Amino acid sequence: MASNSKRLVENSSRYTFRPGETVSSEPDLSFPAAGELNSWHGTVILSPQGFGASRNQNTTEVSTAESCEWGAEGALLGLVDPKGGVQVLDAADGYKPLCQVPALVGGVRNFYFSPLGNHLVTYERWEKDGGNNVGVWDAKTGEMRFSFTLKNYNAMTWPPLKWTAMETHCCRMVQDAVQIMPGNCDRETEISRIEAPGIMAFEVAPKGAGAGGAGAPHVALCIAEWKGQPARCQVFRLDEPKRATATKNFFKAQAVTMSWNNTGTAVLVKASTEEASTGKSYYGDASLYFLRADGEETSLVASADGGPLHDVQWNPTQDEFVMLHGQHPCSAALYEGRKASKRMDFGTGHRNTIRWNNFGRFFTLGGYGQLKGDTDFWDKPGKKLMASTRMECCVVCGWAPDGRHFLTATTAPRMRVDNKIEIYDYLGSPLGRIEFDELLLAGWRPRPRGAFQDRPPTPGRTREEPKAAAKPKATAYRPPGARGGALAEQLRKELGSTAADGATTATKVGGPAPVPIHLPPGASAADFVKQASNPSTSSRNARKKKAKAEAKEEAPQAEPAKPAKFSPPQRGEAEKPAEKPEEKPAAGEGDEVEKKIRALRKKLRDIEKLKEKASAGGSLDPLQKQKLDGEAEILQQQLGLVGRSPVRYNRIGDMGAQTLSRSLKEHGMQILDLQDNAICRLGAEMLYANCGRRLRLKLSCNSVPSYQLVELEEQLEARREEERQLKEAQMKAGKGKKNRPASGQSKTALSKPGSQQSKSSKESKPSSSQRRMSRPDARIGREGERWTQLFVFLLQRFNLWPKSSQVPWLRHCSI
C-alpha cells in the first residue's frame, strides 16, 4: 500500500481504491489473520488506492458500531474482541497487535483514544456492587492508569475524560465540579477543581487562546436550570479555576452541546429541549449561543423562534462557522468567529448536514435522514457552488484526509436493506460503490498533518454527468386508474427536487445585491449592475468623495495667490491657539461604545436591585453575591467609556435630537459629540436647553449656521452664570437667616432675655387669635393683599388713615 493511502472502517476487512483503476471486489487484508476469521465478522478499511466488496463469512458478528475505533492520526486501531476486551493494533506496522486490554465488569461497550494516542478509555455497563466500569489504560502497553464509576451514560457525559490537543491537561466531570489533571493522568500530583454545583456538561478548548496557542487553555461548562434560575455557561482558564472569564445565562436547556473553534478563543453552545414550546416542530426547541473566551462578546446567534437548528460546524482551519437554521427550505450562512456576525449567504434548500474537509476549503451541505439526499459541494474561497448531486439513503458521510474525496454509507441498524458505501470526488462525480448485506460502520482512516497538501479545484474541470438511461419500450395503453400508484406519482411530481433555490454563488452580506434571476422585460444584467453601482444608491461617504472629485476636475486652475500684506493685530485681541484636528473615530465605534455603556448600566441596575433585596433581609445565592463583588470593576469600565462619542456620524435629525435631549441631564458624559449629523435650529435649541451645567456640545457640520451655534453657546453660558450667581445668593441668604437683628436693634439686645427691649416685646406680643386675624393672607390671600396695599396708599394720600388700634390688621399693611 502506498504511503499516501486513506482508509475506511466498517467491521474487519481492508479494501483499496486507486483513482482511475477498476474497482476491486475482494478485500486485501482482514483482521485478525485469515486463520482466525472464524471469531470475527470483518472490519472494512478503505484507502483511495482501490476498494471492493466484502463477502459473507461464517463468523461471529460484532453487535455494535462502537466496537471499532481509530487512534490519533490513524496510527492505532482498536477492536473489541469476543471476550469483551479491546485489542490494539499498530496500523503503521502492518496491523500487528500491540496490547490487549481486559474487561472490568462484563464487556466493553464503547472506547476511544486520547488526541495523541497515549491513552485508551473504555466504558462498560454499570452494575450495582460491580465495581468501577470506566478504565484509563496505556494505549501502547495495556497498563491501567486508574478507574472510576460512571452511572449515567449519555451524550453529555461521554466522553468522561477530555484532553487538550497536545495532552497538556486532562479534565474530568465529577459531582458538582470539574477536576483538572495533568495530561499524563498522574494521580499523585495535585488536582485542582472548578466548583460548579449542578453541572451537566463541559468541553475543553484544544489549545490556549494566545498567539500560536500560547497560554493556558480554557474549559467551558454548563450548569443546569434550578428553581426558576436560568441555565448558565461559564468559561474558566485551567490555571485560574476560581474566576470565570465569560458567562452567559439562558433558559430552555434540558440538553447542551458545546464546540470550540480550532484556536480555542470562542465556543458555540447549543441548548435544546425535548418538546417545542411553539408546537411547530416534533424535535423540540434549539438555540445557539456564542461566547468569547475572554468575555468580550456573548450573543444569541440563533433562537428557537426562528425555526429549528439543523447543524452548525466550525471551519477546521479558520475562525468561522457555517450554520443551517430555519424552516425548510432553511438558510445556510457563514459567520465570523470574532463577534458571530453573518458574513456570507449560501441561499436556501432542504439541507440538514454540514461537512468540512480537513483544509477548510471545500464543504458540503446535504439533506439526509427524512430528506431526499440532495448534496451541494461548495468552494468557500471561490464562493461558488461546484456541483450538486443526490445521495439517497445516506446515514454516515465524511471527507477523506486528502480533502478531495467524499464518502457516503448506508448502515444498519438505521437501514436494514441496501447497505452500501459510495465514493465521490469533490465535484460530486461517483467513483465507486460497494454493497453489503449488513454494514455497521464506515469511515476514513485518519492521517497525520502534512501527509496531503491543500489544492484548489482543477481549472476547467466540471462534473461528469451520468449517462442518460435508455428510453423504455412502448407498451400497450392503460388507463390512469389501472396504472397503480397514481396519487403517489402525482405527489412526487409536485414535490420535485429539494435543490437550493437557484443559488450558485455565495452572497457577501453587506455587499452589492446579486443580479435577480427574473429581470423586467427589456432589461439586461448589465443594466442592473450599472444601476447597482450608481452613486445615488451608494453610501453617503462615497457620494461625497465623488462629488469632491468632480468639482475638482471641473474647477478651472486658479492663479497663484499673491502674498498678503502684513497687518498688525488690533489691541485687546488675544492670539487664538490653533485648534488641533480631531481624530475621526472608525466607522461603528460610536455604536459599540453606546452598546457597552447600555450593558454596563443594565448591570448596575441589577446590582442596585440586589442591594435593595439584601437590605430588606432577603437571601442571596452565590451568583448574586458574585455580581455584587464585581460592582467596582463595572464602575471602572464605565468611567473608561464615559466621555467617548456615542452618537457621532449617525445622521440623527431634529426628532432624534428631541429624544436625546430628554435624557441628557441623567447622562454621565461631559462631552457629547454630535458632529456630521442632520440637526437643525429647533433640535439644537432643545439640546442646549437640556444640557445642564457641565455638558459641552459639539454641533459642527450640521444644518445649523455657525453664527446661530455661537448665539446658543452664549445664551447657555449666560444662563449658567445666572444660575451660579443665584445659587451663591441663596447660600449667603441661608447663612444669614439665623439670628438676623432688626433695623435699629443690636445683637446684644436680642441675645439678652432680661433687657428692656425684650420686656416690651413680651408685653406687646399679640395673642394667637389676634395673630390669625392680623395675617392678611389668612383672610384675603395674595391678590387681596395687593388691593389692600393700594387702598392704604389712597387713605394716606387723602389723610384718611385711621389709628392702628381701631383696625389691628392694618398694622401689617404697608407700601
TrEMBL record:
Residues 531-540 have a biased composition (Polar residues). Residues 469-480 have a biased composition (Low complexity). Pfam families: eIF2A (PF08662). This is Translation initiation factor beta propellor-like domain-containing protein. The keyword Repeat applies. It comes from Durusdinium trenchii. Residues 248-440 form the Translation initiation factor beta propellor-like domain. Keywords: Initiation factor, Protein biosynthesis, Repeat, WD repeat. InterPro entries: TIF2A, TIF_beta_prop-like. The keyword Cell membrane does not apply. Residues 572-586 have a biased composition (Basic and acidic residues). Residues 447-483, 503-595, 723-780 are annotated as: Disordered.
